[in-house]
Input
Amino acid sequence: MSNTQEAILQVLQEDLMQLEDIHACMVAQKGLEGIVPLTESFKQEIMGVWEILRRSMDEFFDVISHYSEMGLNKVYFELGDYDVMFFILPGSDTALVAIVPALANRGLLEVELENARRKIIKIIEQ
Output
């Protein structure tokens, strides 16, 4: 794993996975390839959502890739009892993705995810 990947993984583990309402997070691209903390650290109740994402995200990341060039910044959708939050890295087909309970405090989580996204962008730009 490169230094950049390790630094991004550290942001995911230390800044996001420590939060009670972040059940899973990753920096992902098409096929959910990317930087992912060990899935054992994900809350077990989201494993069904994780599997659905893994199988269906290729088409969604095509949309992210196309519209990020036009300023697409964030995407949210509900999947059962969970929200999946995508914070797109500017001008790319890559996003910071978090799975949270549908009734979580979205405002607080947005602040935490935005802070993590900014850290990740700085890491990538170095």
Summary: Helices lie at 3-16, 47-68, 106-125. The radius of gyration is 13 Å.
